[in-house]
Amino acid sequence: MSRSRAPELVQADDILEFTLDSQPLKQTDARLYGERVIHGGIYQARPDVNAVCHHHAPSILPFCISGMELKPVFHLGATLGETVPFWDARDDFGDTTLIVAKPEEGASLARALGPSWIVLMRRHGATVAGATLEELTFRTIYTARNAALQIQAHTLGHVSPLNEAEIRLAGEYNLRPGPVARAWEYWNVRLDKAEGTFRPKKEKTGAPKKSAAKRRARRHR
Amino acid sequence: MSRSRAPELVQADDILEFTLDSQPLKQTDARLYGERVIHGGIYQARPDVNAVCHHHAPSILPFCISGMELKPVFHLGATLGETVPFWDARDDFGDTTLIVAKPEEGASLARALGPSWIVLMRRHGATVAGATLEELTFRTIYTARNAALQIQAHTLGHVSPLNEAEIRLAGEYNLRPGPVARAWEYWNVRLDKAEGTFRPKKEKTGAPKKSAAKRRARRHR
Amino acid sequence: MSRSRAPELVQADDILEFTLDSQPLKQTDARLYGERVIHGGIYQARPDVNAVCHHHAPSILPFCISGMELKPVFHLGATLGETVPFWDARDDFGDTTLIVAKPEEGASLARALGPSWIVLMRRHGATVAGATLEELTFRTIYTARNAALQIQAHTLGHVSPLNEAEIRLAGEYNLRPGPVARAWEYWNVRLDKAEGTFRPKKEKTGAPKKSAAKRRARRHR
Amino acid sequence: MSRSRAPELVQADDILEFTLDSQPLKQTDARLYGERVIHGGIYQARPDVNAVCHHHAPSILPFCISGMELKPVFHLGATLGETVPFWDARDDFGDTTLIVAKPEEGASLARALGPSWIVLMRRHGATVAGATLEELTFRTIYTARNAALQIQAHTLGHVSPLNEAEIRLAGEYNLRPGPVARAWEYWNVRLDKAEGTFRPKKEKTGAPKKSAAKRRARRHR
Description:
The structure is a homotetramer. By secondary structure, chain A is α+β, with helices and mostly antiparallel strands. The first copy, chain A, has a 4-stranded mixed β-sheet. The radius of gyration of chain A is 20 Å and the shape is globular. The interface between A and B is large, with 47 and 42 residues.
């Protein structure tokens, strides 16, 4: 995990290694994220999790504020599962800063996550888990998009979730290598474009490359 | 159609040719879109269609989720027609992944589209057809804008559609060569700007080019 | 007015001169805007108007669709006046294409505008008038922003307009040279930034320019 | 404070010094902000305030229009405090231009602010105060984000505020040096990116810099 820095600014040499107790492996003067126990707590409880994201996505927060239940409403939101866990720190800790900074708070959050892959945090945001970084990114982005659509659909009328079978079938399809890889390539390109380092990749399709196509591709760099 | 790739990343040498059965013409190792049968199914059923777009536009999805009927509410949405077809895969297939991957699913969707130019897909998105690529793009973008306006208008009060005559008259006007060409030029320029390849075009207006105007146009490149 | 082209693409040599009957002064092969009679009709009826804007702003259209009355709700929307005229083409013409292409339609719209500076057009958009181009731009942008705020405020509760005296006093203040000039400089800079031609201007403030400030300003170009 | 100019355009040599009576220290021909008495009035009343921001943020204005009470709804909005002061110029001045241009109007607004750090201005916007510029920026941005979330949450159901203890605890945590510094760095980078002057900073973390990381960081500039 990076030292404490706005995520958009993180560079390769900001990355530090931590123990499962969220202590840095090597001694450092860098300021660390106060909420690193969110990550450590989940890694401790879930050997199947290899990537964690904590965020305050504006589309998800209304569900952490209003009490309306977040549920999968379109095919790409199926990874939400049938019930989205909701963690309220007051259950274990009474009134707090709402920040998850103590190991026991991270452990409490991990208990609320249970075997799921996303947990909402009252008045705060969400934490998402994944078996891989690619899958984590897919889950994080599409659950947030599902939330945005649920809010919009709610203004038009009653919103019901996908049914149990659809959630299972669509959720499985979403996480197949094809969809996840296509999305992963896309988001990496968007990052490169944002950083001004984008060069279009050319993958072999098996068809002979026409020379005109080659010149056009070169112009696109 | 392209090999399976996020649309924003598609290059000229990603484009492959397919049969009406959505099989690639030339043997290829490239990963293909799972939902290419949406396109093949419509081309099979509709000889008048020469371009198809399948999307998950955020303004359209609330109508695929909430059961609120999408209808033309402003002049540029008239191409929606009086009734927008709605396809529910459960009618023919029960619970599915919500993905249209099997030929029979593409055929079912094409039946729902019927003679129309857009069909909503429950919990998924929409598919749009056009006689030309230019017309397809016009229909796709303005139906999505109509949807966004209908959602906003709905928060202010009851929303009624354009009447039958207006839908017909405005729809015809929208698809005249002038409006479609003006929009087509605009969206091409926006793509070029996004890709950093934009050079302002100078069309002959019949008026002598003033030298000051020429210098100003050159500065804008 | 420009020949028929998406506004964002208009260049200096697209601009043509028209009579008050919306006929081009010089013979031209260029395609012309079908709705130029909106402009000509208002110039004919209003000798005090020297700039006209016709648009389909997404924040204004919900008021052209839902029947909710657009009203000034914040200080910068005071130029809307107490009552915003609403033009319904069906009153004079029955069912139409919703496009204002005939001289009599432009005249009808101008009658609806009356002595006001903005008129809403049912299911279509709005037309705004101004004594100068700077004032027109101010009115156009801030009436659209007022509309957006009215929609948001409406979701929170009942929305009442500014009272009569506030509309008059705030409206007068808005259109003083200072506010209009400051906004005009700002929007011109935003256009320059969008076109990649922005160079920060340095106006004399009367204070001696410090050399450090000079070097910093140079770095900002 | 700058001379009268759209904030986005302000350069170093636009900055002028003013007395607490909002008069320029040095004689100048520059046009000055009509509302500089907002700032002067608060500095007069509040020796603990060293930075002031007046704005018309679109997420805050609906609360200045609708009468809905703005309240802290998520952890980063805790700095709103339990009750957000609301200033109505009509109480002291009857109908006005809604602009705060007279010294007595600035004084009235400062009285409404009282010991708080934000005051809403009916039909106008908000004014925010801070002990430092960094703190002011944090308060300004996160109170506006809280407002946006409250509007969204309101569409989903009843919205209650954080409780008294949470407001106090979370508010204190928000304004610790760590969170404020991290946010300050982030917003400065966003400004640099917007102005095209961004160069990634490399801070010593105490770990030896790997040569591969060094080359990668150099490529990111």
